[in-house]
From TrEMBL:
MF terms in GO: malate dehydrogenase (decarboxylating) (NADP+) activity; metal ion binding; NAD binding
Residue ranges of domain Malic enzyme NAD-binding in the record: 244-496
Binding site for (S)-malate: 129, 383, 427
The protein's required cofactors: Mn(2+); Mg(2+)
Keywords of this entry: Metal-binding, Oxidoreductase
PANTHER family linked to this entry: MALIC ENZYME-RELATED
Protein name (Swiss-Prot/TrEMBL): Malic enzyme
NCBIfam families cross-referenced by the UniProt entry: PRK13529.1
Family: Belongs to the malic enzymes family.
Active site, per annotation: 76 (proton donor), 147 (proton acceptor)
Gene Ontology BP, a term: malate metabolic process
Stretches that traverse the bilayer: none
Length: 547
């Protein structure tokens, strides 16, 4: 763009093709933000950023890095949810790979079409459960695209090493099947062995093309496939599921930070989940691990966790043997769907909403929880904002400002009884970019469940007294780049201590080691020159990153 110098314009034969004005990248960033703020709505802002990403990659990432807290709700939840709902209508230029069920047997050749020779991180979805919006089919590609942008903007992972993927096996969304502009397959979802063979072929093709240490993040698969695929692949590939493990990590981090405010221990709490899907069960499992490390037995830890699904309280009488994930938390109790009755029975000190049922935490529920505990923890984590179990204002109002609150999507500060609360956003972006950075830099072959407890503790440790005084249980979003790097350093240390890192020699200072590998989005950044010259820090230190 206009940042080319006079000398560069001469050398690259750009004289006359550009106006004479020369702008610095800082000026371009300022102008981009001015244009973004002129957009009438979040969807307009999303489209401006997508076009910027297509036109000037380095400027796009620089803008994201400098204005993360302002732009996060646009490129990620809740803005990306609205974009996914209209993805086909908005579609201009493809980004990422689309693999369909009709490509079975030819997946390796499709991966070979990707122009970048060395991919080291993939986010893949089949679009069946996009946020709290349901089956969006190929329109769900907006999620991997958004997540990969945050890999680079927050985690500092070079964007050319990342790849968004949509595996299109059809959709059961009638509106999409009848939409003449829908970009995906117009057929009902394929299931069973045909589906399984396609996913197997994809996983095998990735390793064959880019190596065993290629990180694969599963995103927004339906519950029945999410758990099954994670169990199937987690010891055979470098894989994790962000909806199960990433959400669990950020939720547990928020709970651990809440303990600084409540002055309690995690083993003193009783947890009630509104919802019993991927996020709930992943969080429940990680809470059990955290309580075990504090001395509780597995059985005692599970007894402190209660689940409520769409059919009511998860009880022994309801659970079949096929539902092993819920079964371990089932209770000997009367069957009921009434949340008020359940709150009276359980008397939870922490209620966690992950059901995408808007308004589930009614004023009565919030008042009841506050009557049982002086400082209840209320997490309304469902996305997007329209699906939140309660708003921040409702939570503070109906607990008389006593609750510790966090949400999945952002809420504005709330004034109550002369105090202003700044509600924390339990955003997975606090977790997955840092974990990915550590995994890739350390040459890890397998991502253990314990990694996400290490990440949760690292994130909670970064919550300051000032954060707590303001009602935050997460560091301010303006600090998320530094937060991600410090979290990654803690995770990297764990990889080396536990013997999962293959990169040698072991770096003495993990923070500086990781910082030296991060993507520099400035035009004259050192990493830019290294990439141009084929001397990326990702390739020189580890054979697995050879380009």
């Amino acid at each position: 763009d206009l940042a080319f110098t006079t000398r560069e314009r001469e050398a690259l034969y750009l004289k006359g093709l550009l106006p004479p004005c020369i702008r610095t990248q800082d000026m371009q960033v300022e102008l981009a933000m001015t244009n973004i703020r002129l957009q009438k709505d979040d969807l307009g802002k999303y489209m401006f950023l997508r076009e910027l990403q297509d036109h000037n990659k380095r400027l796009f990432y620089r803008v994201l890095q400098l204005y993360t807290s302002e732009l996060m709700p646009i490129v990620y939840t809740p803005g990306v949810g609205a974009a996914c709902q209209k993805y086909s209508m908005l579609f201009k230029r493809p980004r990422g790979l689309f693999i369909t069920v009709h490509d079975a047997g030819r997946v390796p050749s499709i991966l070979a079409n990707w122009p970048e020779p060395d991919v080291k991180a993939i986010v893949v979805t089949d679009g069946e459960r996009i946020l709290g919006l349901g089956d969006l089919g190929a329109n769900g590609m907006g999620i991997p695209v958004g997540k990969m942008a945050l890999y680079s903007a927050i985690g500092g992972i070079p964007p050319e090493l990342t790849l968004p993927v949509c595996i299109d096996v059809g959709t059961n969304n009638e509106a999409l099947l009848n939409d003449p502009y829908y970009i995906g397959l117009k057929q009902r979802r394929v299931t069973g062995s045909e589906y399984n063979h396609l996913i197997d072929e994809f996983m095998e093709a990735v390793v064959k093309r880019w190596g065993r240490q290629t990180l694969i993040q599963f995103e927004d698969f339906a519950n029945n496939n999410a758990f099954r695929l994670l169990e199937r692949y987690k010891t055979r590939y470098c894989v994790f599921n962000d909806d199960i493990q990433g959400t669990a990590s950020v939720a547990v981090a928020g709970i651990m930070a809440s303990l600084k405010i409540t002055g309690t221990k995690i083993t003193q709490h009783t947890f009630l989940f509104q919802g019993a899907g991927e996020a709930a069960l992943g969080t429940a499992d990680l809470l059990v691990m955290a309580m075990e490390q504090e001395g509780l037995s597995t059985e005692d830890a599970r007894n402190r966790i209660w689940l409520l699904d769409s059919q009511g309280l998860v009880t022994m009488s309801r659970m079949g043997r096929n539902d092993k994930h819920k079964m371990q938390f089932a209770k000997q109790a009367a069957d009921t769907k009434n949340l008020e009755e359940i709150v009276d029975l359980v008397k939870p000190s922490c209620i966690i909403g992950v059901s995408a049922v808007s308004g589930a935490f009614t004023p009565t529920i919030l008042k009841k929880v506050a009557s049982y505990h002086k400082r209840p923890i209320v997490f309304a984590l469902s996305n997007p904002t329209s699906k939140a179990e309660c708003t921040a204002e409702e939570a503070y109002k109906h607990t008389d400002g006593q609750c510790v609150f966090a949400s999945g999507s952002p809420f504005d500060p709330v004034a109550h009884n002369g105090k202003t609360f700044h509600p924390g956003q339990g955003n997975n972006a606090y977790i997955f970019p840092g974990v990915a950075l550590a995994v890739m830099a350390c040459g890890v072959n397998e991502i253990r469940d314990e990694v996400f407890l290490v990440a949760a503790k690292a994130l909670a440790d970064l919550v300051t007294k000032q954060d707590c005084d303001e009602g935050r249980v997460y560091p301010h979003l303006d600090q998320i780049n530094e937060t991600s790097l410090r979290l990654a350093a803690k995770v990297a240390q764990w990889f080396y201590t536990e013997g999962y890192a293959t990169h040698r020699p072991e770096p003495e200072d993990k923070y500086l080691f990781l910082k030296g590998k991060q993507y520099d989005a400035t035009y004259d950044g050192s990493s830019f020159n290294k990439h141009i010259n084929g001397k990326s820090s990702w390739s020189s230190a580890n054979p697995s990153f050879t380009r």
